[in-house]
Structures are given as C-alpha cells and as structure tokens.
Amino acid sequence: MAVKDENSDQTLELFLKIGLDERTARNTIANNKVTANLTVVIQEAALNNGCDRIIGNLLYTVATKYPANALVHRPNLLEYVVSSKVKTPGQLEAAFTFLSNLASENFKRNEFEEACGIGVEVSVEEITQTVNEIFEENKAVILEQRYRTNVGELLGSVRKKHPWADPKIAKKLVDAKMYELLGERTAADDEKPSKKKEKKEKPAKVENKAVDGTHLQPSEEELNPFSIFPAPEDNIKVHTEVFFSNGFVLRCCNTREMLDKHLKMTGGRVFSRFPPEPNGYLHIGHAKAMFVDFGLAKERGGCCYLRYDDTNPEAEKKEYIHHIEEIVQWMGWKPFKITYTSDYFQDLYELAVELIRRGHAYVDHQTPEEIKEYREKKMNSPWRDRPIAESLKLFDDMKRGLIEEGKATLRMKQDMRSDNFNMYDLIAYRIKFTPHPHAGDKWCIYPSYDYSHCIVDSLENITHSLCTLEFETRRASYYWLLHVLDLYQPYVWEYSRLNVTNTVMSKRKLNYLVTNKYVDGWDDPRLMTLAGLRRRGVTSTAINAFVRGIGITRSDCSMIRLDRLEYHVREELNKTAPRVLVVLHPLKVVITNLESSSVMELDAKKWPDAQADDTSAFYKVPFSNVVYIERSDFRIKDSKDYYGLAPGKSVLLRYAFPIKCTDVILGDDNETVIEIRAEYDPSKKSKPKGVLHWVAEPYPGADPLKVEVRLFEKLFNSENPTELDNWFVDLNLDSKLVIPAAYAVPALRNAAVGDTFQFERLGYFTADKDSTAEKLVFNRTVTLKDTYCKGGK
Length: 793
Hints:
This protein is of the alpha/beta class.
C-alpha cells in the first residue's frame, strides 16, 4: 500500500508540474485510464520536468480526447504542441479531426498544418473589425435583450470567420463592446422576466427569430442526433485500449479482411439491436434505448433486431416476452427480425470450447463468496492454471449435467490484477437445472451476459452496439473476448441512461412495488413503465418527442424533471384531445327563472378554434334549470381577485349563459353549502369576468352521467428516491385519489378505452381499462398547468 501512495505522490507532482491545478490533478489520479494516458503523453512530449499551464492544458486534452485510431501520429501532434505551433483549443480540435480521418495512413505535414491553421496569425485589429460587424448586424436584438444576450452565439460568429483567432482576445473584445453599447449592468438585467410578460412576448420572440435571423442555426447534432455515429465502413479504427497489469496494451480493431467480410454480409448497411432482458415490463428508459437503436437504423436506412437477452431462465417469463414485442410496436418501431440469445446457445457453446482450447478460459470450483473474496484481493483462482484438457472435460461434464449446480463455472482467463474489475476473470457459464422459456430443457448450462452479449452482436453482424454508460467498464471485456476469438468487432458507444425525477426505474425496485402491492400492477398509471404511461394516456409519439429532445449524450449525472415529459404530453394532447365538460366535485345550482321542464340543446366546442360552419367541431350539451358546478368555484365571501361564483355575483357558464347567485342553502351545521339558487340572463347582456365549466341534468329529475375519475400525483415525494437508504418509505401516500361520482356531459357516454379528452379547466384524461357499461373510469394524464415551458425548455 505504501508503494501505491508513493507512486500517487510522484504522479501528482508530475501533473502539477505541467500546470494542472491541484483539484484537477487529484481527480485525474482517481481515474486510472486518464492517469495512464496523461503520463504517457507527458513522456512522449519529453516534459517530465514540467511546462507552462497553456501547454499543460493542451496535453491534458490530448490525453483525454486523442483519437485512438491514430496513435501512431500522436508524437507528431505533441511536437506541434510543445513548440506552441498548436496553441489554442480550436487548433487542437481541428488536429483531432484531421488525425482521426487520417488513421494510420502517412502523415503529411503540409496538409496537417493547413487543416489546423499552423502559422496563421489573426491580428487584434482583424478580430476587432469582425466583432464590430457582428454587433452592428445584431444591434437591435442586443439592445432589446441587453445582458441577457447569448454571448456564446456572438463568439461563435467570431469563430466562424476566424477559427484560429485567440478565443481569450475575442471574449475580451466582445465584453468590451457589450459595455460600450449597453453601459453598466443594472439590477433589471439580472431579473428574470415575469411569467406574464414571457407569455405575452413569446409569439414576438419566435417572429424575431424568423425575421431577423440573428440566432445561429441549430447544430447538425440537434437536427439529427444520429450524426455522431460513424459509418459501417469506418469500423476499422481502434475501438478501445485495454490496459493490462503487466503493461501490455491491447488496441482492439477489425482487420481489413474481417471488415470487408462483414460489409459483404450487411451490404454496408447499419445493423443495430434492441436487446431487453425479458424479466419485467419495459420502462421509459427503454424508450430512450429504442429511440437510439431503432432510430439510428431507420435514419441510416438499416436494420434493427429485437433480441431477447434470455440467458437467465429463472427470471424470464413468456408474459414479459409478449409484452416487450407488443410495446415495441406501440412505440412505433418495427424490428427487422426478432431473435433470442438462446437461438445461439449451440454457437456460444462451441465458441466457449474454442476459448478453452486457446487457453483463455478454465473451469473453476470457487463458491460465489470465494470468487468475491479473491476478486477483492486481486488473487487468481487456485484452478486458473489447470490443464486445458482438464477444463475441456469438466466443461463437457457440466453440459451433460454430471456436475451439481453451484459446483463449477466456466471463467474467462482475463487479468485479475487489472484496474478494471470487469476484467477479473468474468464467469462465462454457470450450471442451472431450470427449463428455459424459449429453448426448453435442452440445456443445463447457461451463458452469462458478459460472455454472450458481445459474441451474439458479432454473429448478427451488428455495426453499432449502443448501450448506457454503466456498461462502459465492460467495454474492455467485450473487445478482449472478440479479439481472442478472432471475431468481427462492432462499434461500441455508451450514452447516458434516462433518469426521471420522483420515480424509480430499476426493474428490481419496480418488481418490489408490484409484488408488494404498493401499486396496482406493472401498468399502474403512476409508474414510469411504458404500459403504465400508456394506461395513463401518454402517447408513444409524446414519449419519443421527449426522448429526442433530451438527445444522445454521455452526460450521466443529470436528472430529467418529470414536468419536461409532461410538457411534450400537453403539446400533443392540446392538438388531439377534444374538449368536454366534466365536474369532479359537483355543487347543485337551481336556476329559478327557467322552467323545470325546459331543456335546451346548446353547442359546445370540441376545439378552441372550431369554425362555426364545421358541425363536426361541436357537440351538444343539455342546459336545464339544474346545473352542477365545481364546489371550489363557489365562495360565501367574495374578493377582488376571485372570479368564481359568490352571493350577488355573476359568472358565465361556458357555451351557455351568465348566471347570478341569488340565494345559498346551507346544511344543518350552518356552514356546508348544500345548494345555490341563481337566475340566468337569457339575453347575455351581462359580461361577467369569471367563466365556469358545468354539467346540467339532461332532463328533469335525472342525474347527469356519473363517471369515476382517478387523479394521480408523483409516486415519490423526493426527486431522487433511490438515493435514500429506505427508498420505499418515500412513497407518496396521496399519489392516487379516486373520485367515484363525478358528473359528465352525455357526449362522453360512448368513450372507448384509450380515448383521451381535455376536461375543460381540469386537465387531460383517458378512459381506463376498468371502465364498464355501467360506469366509465377516467385517468388524469396530465394537468393543464405547465411548469416546464414557463421555466424554459
């Protein structure tokens, strides 16, 4: 341990010598891969004695971002960095692009220098002139937005004209110009615009964008999130570097012959896969995975497999398999082919035998506890170096069921002293005397995910193996296995998993909630399962829009607010859900100046912009002398800021008439309002400010249509319940409220399961599968209030 501390101190001293601040240096040391890369870069640059901070920061960037397929040219780049010919981040990024495209081909200095702006000097005068021109073009917007102006966009315009200009000088000149034009920053510049003002100015803002053209165009990545992925024919570059404890570095990549064979099989098309494990219902995180996997294939004119990762027969059920296939289709994706990892069990077995023959696997007899202990101590298993012939026989015994469950495993012979724990001789096969849902009882040994996943990717000629960031440390094992078996190697890329506030998405936690009946099944509308969201009334198109808006990034620390999803739901339902009138908590209003036998048929709008000559945009609502309003829309004591009904006050019943409260009937406690008496204005001459929704008796003495309404809130009180020790105690006990007897207009009587409506002033609601001929049941999909768009997209 002392040796390790001494090495750490020496490494820290080295990193400080090149100008890294102490915090960055210590954080770097905590990352073994970056530490190894940076140490090698410093040695290649011959800067063990240190350098100035500018060069040191560039070296750090080289260590973390240099393209792995062009390592042969790294000394050339470092020569330019040390001599300060490459001296800005912009030049370094240009160098990375040039070298990545060059790969291992011959390095031509003249082409490199031209691509990176070597020797190009941009004077302060030239930058000043460009800044002046940009400010003149954008003057009107800058004066309007003042210090809220996006300075990044202005600097981007400068970079576009002078890519090799010193960014610090450009920033200094832009700041000076802002001060010259606007003067001192005021308190008003730091105030957030009021919500009311934002609402009014929103259309004008959009118009300015279109007319003035002062905002930069969206990046290619924003327009097409799949542009970040390489073409299949480029998959000859180094995928990753696997660092071994003995100092050997394995640089994994396809040979030209291997890639050509693959391209011939695929026709050069993109082949991706969506590989869920059929051990539970899919959640919204899987929606992102589907968008990435199916979306890439669709955008490139390729194919995407739906592959069931069914290597654990104890946890898998036919129910989950059927659900996954059905929900993939509901999400709008069409698989090229549906396959199972179990389809390849024979291939996987034969390759495991070959792995043993090549000396890269062995049969082990350690217990799970012993394996854990030996891994923690970085110790080899006592059976690691047993003869190959012995392992081959024992593996055959395992296959034939001659060894008890738990008495033997097949382990890959990787590197027990590696800095990557996913290289600690991972298990390839284990014994399970359990019938398989798809393969039946043919096998009693089953491959692990770590062994099977990469091999099946290769066998299916997958071009892009895309997964979430928690699998990044498995990349070394993925490529090591394909390398030692001489198999084609797909391009692997990890993206951030989708984390949404106030919920859990771990299948284990979801299963706990379902089995312990904290929720009403896998499709409970409060869950973020796709079945639950669908039952709640969320559409697949809204989910896909939400996922696309998040993008495909590697930032794994962000928690996406639930109201961001709700924003996309509202955006769609506002266009697709017809309006109807429903009263959740009815309060009876008797209109005294209307005959009790009189029932009028009035027109109500299904859509806010309904045209008078379009009869399909209206529905009929009865208006009689007994109507019902929301109990919350009446107060005994009126106030200036209250627009509901009160004694002596008038309101407008939407699509009907103004009414004025003339009397209030109280209960025996002399507090509870039992009934309101009112008069209506048939001439509609009065113009009250308040507008209420309502439902009337369809004919004298008949109650309106009764429906059950379920209101849902966030399932957990905390934004991130998984951080808590006892996460399930954070459950929101008020996350579901059932209103058994709401009143609805007759037009809602024929609603079918899955139909969605906007209950005016209340929110969007969907007919639930619990509906019967006797009573309709509606789930609230989302409220009308939108906190996300007010806060900014």
